[in-house]
Amino acid sequence: MNSDDKVVYDDKARHMAEQMVMAEQRHIAQRLQEDCDCKDGMFPRHVISSRRGFLFAAGSLVGAAGAASIARAESPKAPPGAVLYDVPDDPTKVQGRPVADESYGTRSQFETEVRMRYPTPNENTSWSLTPLGKGLGNITPSGLHFERHHGGIPTIDPARHNLLIHGMVDRPMTFSMADIKRLPSVTRKHFIECSGNGLTEWNKPTMKTVQGTHGLLSTSEWTGVQFATFARETGLKEGAAWVLAEGADAAVMTRSIPMEKMLKDALIVYGQNGEAIRPEQGYPLRLLLPGYEGNTHIKWLRRLQVSDKPFMTREETSKYTDLLGDGKARIFTLDMEAKSVITFPSGDMKLPGPGFYNITGLAWTGRGRVQSVDVSLDSGKTWYPARLESVPEPMCTVRFSFPWMWDGKAAVLQSRCIDETGYVQPTLKQLIAIRGDNGPFGSVYHLNAIQSWAVSAAGDVTNVHA
Amino acid sequence: MSMRRKYLAFAIGICLFSGSASAQSTIDHFGVGRNATTDEMAKYFSIPPSGAGLPPGSGTAKAGAAIFANTCAACHGDKLQGNPAKGIGGDRLIGGRGTLASKTPVKTVESYWPYATTLFDYIKRAMPFDSPGSLKDDEVYSLVAYILSEAKVIKPSETMDAKTLPKVEMPNRDGFVPDPRPELQLYR
Given CB atoms, is A326 within the 8 Å cutoff of chain B? Predict the structure, then answer.
């Protein structure tokens, strides 16, 4: 007899959320230690009051890692992606740095935002979250784009990388990277969101920051060739209905994509934000499926196999299916539905006192354009239209804002996205009523509920279910 | 090329290049890329539920047990119970039947996977995690037989090959439903 009769709930899943909380605490401690007091304007919580006290408290919470970060505070170190320079008292009284002959450029040493890795036991199958709390505009800097790898990040020489297209086609063909770059290209802005975004938030507010709750979302400008262009080169046989996409990483990741989607707007991209896509994003080539769950956007793309049926790969059966409360699981839940989140003020920030604040956040939908965004200050009882900061584009985030004169009383801030189909972003209660309350263990994916941030009279902002 | 597009291209040609012999119409086929060879296509595989593309060879649970102990157990446990240790994180592979409708469902090959062909495809493709793609087809068939036999999905005596594998009925074969979203309940 195996363990059927006495189900032992496996440790890996049980400690998932707890580990994540620990990782976020380490991350926050690190951030506070890097932040200078002059940045009270961005209001990370605790910086304003008793910053040292908190550091020590955090240190004791997270043990060795926290203690190590306090020790490092004595000798300043450049944040990742920056170089540390001396800061003159008056930059107009000394020459600055000369123009370098061959350079790539770095961000300012005062900018400290970094991705935070989800503490899965195995670092090669793990994910990292985009720091949305300080993000500006719509585009995610390429170096801060969230990551999800199932077999690490491969190193691929583009000179030896090809794309094979075969199966139910008239002419199976191989395209080198040079071939692909000769083809007519398109450039479009699209978000990618992992369908696991927010998985810790199903049964209780778990993560403190917006990076923790929503950081598996990033937006880039992508450049590449439409799948339709390739399809006309190879021809498609009668009955072709699915396309298997395969990556050249150690997971040899595969997903089956409906032909309808492939011929509607699928892109085979090599460019991200004006340069070659990053290794973590699939260098030299990835599939981009606007509005589809992130896992389907196969990175390090090397092969497309046209078929009449889906292949039922491990990633579309064992994973990325949605187990409902009744024991049935939804399969091929590919669309990312309308969603939004307030990024400022958001969890773990602190408002110094009553007065004016420009509430801002992101809204997106996998089903077209964002039509409008509403903001509530009273936990969803009343809604007000937000301002959109740019013209919404299909399957792209849009930044919204809402001018708020805070009276200093406790408030619960929410936003909701209405997409161009008329779909209104639901509440968590609504989702749980439909899908069951087995999250995050059964229902892991596709949490697109309204997020609530509570602001206390003291100005502390926390993640709540309201 | 549709008549309309042909006409359009022609019209643009007239407007831009009237009088010039070098007018170029819209290009539909670029002549970029090359025909794929049978050899290069043969390097790849993806096995659908029909079993199409399953390689020759076969394996048994007995042979699989030995391979599993040597190449898989460190990460998946000697009883296939999984190993959540730091640096490993191998999934639990069996058990969990009857838990899917509970608050803490246990999703394993045994309790959750709808197709046995997926197990062959995935092990051949991505396992062992630290040395993917290193197993011979007979070894993959044997490992599949071993895991399915430990899961009580097949008998320990059954041989797995291109014929038998697609016929295996997984316990959760009918456990999946198509995506009903947008959920109608949200429109009220």
Answer: yes
